[in-house]
Structures are given as C-alpha cells and as structure tokens.
Amino acid sequence: MGAGRGKTKRSQSGARPEAAATAKLYKQAKVDATKWKQFLKNAKLEHVSLQDYYVKDANASADERMELIVNELLADLTAVGAVVLPEPYQIADFHFEFAPDGELYASLTTDAGQHTYFTPVIGIRRHFDIRGEMQNTDVGYALVRLTAFITSLINQHEGLA
Prior knowledge:
The chain has helices at residues 5-12, 17-22, 33-43, 50-54, 62-79, 124-127, 137-157, and strands at 30-31, 83-84, 94-98, 104-109, 115-120. It is of the alpha+beta class. The longest helix is centred in the C-terminal third of the chain and has 21 residues, at 137-157.
C-alpha cells in the first residue's frame, strides 16, 4: 500500500453515520458521594442514625423501616446532588419495596403509571444497617448499590439491558 492509503481505507470501513445517529446510548445514574458528606457536615447530621432521622412510627416492622429509609434516603441523595439521574427520569419514578419472598425490589413507574420493571436488590439487607449513623460506610454502600439497580431499571425500560 502507498503512503496514507491504509488510513483512508480504514476510515471508510467504519459504521454508517445514519446507523450511529439512531443507536441508543446506555443511560447511567451517577454518584457523587462527596456531596452527601458535605450535606451531612453542613446539616450536622453525621452522627444521627438513619432510623432516628427517617422513621417516625415506632411500631413499624423491620421491613417497613427499611423500605421507608431506602426510599427517603434516595430522595435526599438526589435532592443534594449525590445521585444524578439521566433525563427524563426523576427519583419519584422509582420505588423500593419488600416482596413476600423477603427480598427488597426496585421498581420503575412507567409513563402509564404502572410498576412494570422490577429487579431484586440482592444483598442490601446484609450490608445496610439502618441503625447506623448517616455518615457510615453502609450509606456509601447503599448509595452505590441502589444507584446500580436504578441504572439497571432505566436501561430495561429503554430496551438497552
């Protein structure tokens, strides 16, 4: 091959521009744990337990407390910018609840108002202590794990998973 011909040939063998324009891109919820830490510091909440902060009903079952904490914690994480969802999703589109099998499930509410996408949040019960302080590594673990499940639901909904 002459000088430069291989480069020209390689550039012509790429994907067609119209195909690239129609391809869907993987969507991801993003995490910035420093924003959560800064919020806790500014609000002086580092040493407050998750349970004391979020649970007002002393008679709530362990599953009810966990559900409440997970849903409220995610709302707060989103409000302070520690979790950023891709457009057009909002934290209100997602809900976490315990199923009869004892697992916590994440669901996405579609435009039709139905919870049509479900995924189990495996391991959260073992690694997330609701009695722990809001600054604990458990919250960081939950932040990463729950955001991963939200990303999974988004991509199921988008037809990318």
